[in-house]
Amino acid sequence: MKEKEKTKKILQHLVQSKEFLICNALKISIGTNTPKGGNISHGGITLFTLVNEFGTDWNTEVTKRNGVIRSIEDPTEIAIILYGDSEAETFLKCLKYAVEVLEKQMFENLRSRKKDEISGSGVKDGLVH
Question: What's the burial of 98, exposed, middle or buried (CB within 10 Å: 0-12/13-18/19+)?
Answer without folding.
Answer: exposed
